[in-house]
Specification:
With 330 residues, this protein is an alpha+beta fold. The protein folds into two domains: 9-69, no CATH class; 77-324, no CATH class. It is built from six helices and 16 strands. It has helices at residues 83-90, 95-106, 152-162, 212-233, 245-259, 286-297; strands at 9-13, 18-22, 28-32, 38-43, 48-53, 111-112, 119-120, 126-127, 133-134, 141-142, 173-174, 176-182, 185-194, 264-271, 310-312, 315-324. The protein is globular, with a radius of gyration of 22 Å. The mean pLDDT is 92.
Length: 330
């Protein structure tokens, strides 16, 4: 293809009565317009790179115009539905209200989030006067990089434990991370959130690092955590870099932080009734979500540990399963 030429892909699905036209091929997602029959395809920066027209016969021989307005959830890219916008909404309020909300969500004696605590993310993306968006309120936390959540020494210890090389490589993101008080000590609330069953990574989920030294260091770190948890619970743990990786790294990081003297509440949070995820297996009750988590983690984590305080040395690690109804109407 010549330099000044541009590829356009046109797909007519006569049986499905759908027309798709694509002129950009960067990673992206579909977003609604003011016409229910028409969606636009956006790249991760919000640039239109295609259009999909459903119910094509209804607009045959007609000229129609549509409006597409970028909303705050569009700034979340491919994660603009499901759990991520709900996490942003959960923490998008006054500090007093968010602290109350998180404390009630944990619902464990002697665990409290106060208005003086720090949580990441801290709200929705904000549209600025110049029309640009400030996405930072909705950014997720990397614990080795967020200086408001852990002391510098602890963050450095975590990074060295997890990674062998690299100036600033990615470490696991957390849907919500907040400082809190646990039994009167400064602790950490770590939240992994899901809005439908498919958001739980497939069992074949594995570490995506392409660096062999880092992959080996991550394998060792997860194995160390599994061995430590097995000693504490006297039950098998099968955490792994090569399967159930997200679940494994959640427990591994929680264990390591507790081993460094910072008490941790690790919450698996299920959002109930996420109707924007039509066609997915949704959670309709706390029992739905708990059953889903335990089925997914069977043979990987000790399911008897949920809701139990695990003593990592002299420091508490409490894994819990919770649900929340967070309205979201995109």
């Amino acid at each position: 293809m010549k330099e000044n030429e541009k590829k356009i892909q046109i797909w007519l699905d006569e049986e499905g009565n759908t027309l798709t036209v694509t002129w950009g091929f960067q990673p992206g997602y579909y977003s609604d317009t003011d016409d229910d029959r028409i969606m636009v395809r956006l790249d991760m920066a919000g640039n239109v790179q295609g259009v999909q027209v459903d119910d094509l016969n209804s607009i045959r021989n007609k000229s129609i115009g549509v409006k597409h307005t970028l909303e705050w959830w569009d700034q979340l890219g491919k994660d603009n539905r499901g759990s991520r916008p709900r996490c942003a909404l959960l923490v998008d309020d006054s500090r007093e209200e968010v602290a109350r909300r998180l404390t009630q969500l944990v619902n464990v004696p002697h665990v409290e989030v106060s208005a003086d605590d720090t949580w990441i993310p801290w709200g929705k993306p904000v549209k600025l006067q110049n029309g640009q968006w400030n996405k930072s309120p909705a950014n997720e936390a990397e614990l080795d990089k967020s200086d408001s959540l852990l002391a510098t020494k602890t963050r450095n210890q975590l990074r060295e434990w997890w990674l062998a090389v690299g100036r600033n490589p990615r470490t696991p993101n957390w849907d919500i991370a907040s400082t809190c008080s646990i039994d009167g000590e400064q602790g950490l609330l770590l939240v992994e959130a899901k809005a439908h069953a498919a958001e739980l990574a497939p069992r074949s989920d594995r570490c995506g690092s392409s660096n062999d030294e880092n992959r080996e260091r991550i394998r060792q770190a997860i194995a160390e955590a599994a061995a430590g948890l097995q000693v504490v619970t006297e039950s098998p743990w099968n955490l792994s870099r090569d399967h159930h990786y997200q679940l494994s790294n959640r427990f591994a990081w929680a264990w390591k932080i507790a081993s460094l003297g910072v008490p941790v509440v690790l919450m698996y949070l299920g959002f109930l009734g996420a109707r924007d995820m039509a066609g997915k297996e949704l959670f309709h009750s706390p029992e739905d979500w708990e059953q889903c988590v335990k089925k997914y983690g069977a043979g990987v984590v000790d399911n008897g540990s949920w809701g139990q305080r695990l003593n990592i040395g002299n420091t508490s690690l409490l894994p819990i399963i919770r649900t929340y109804e967070q309205p979201f109407y995109p």
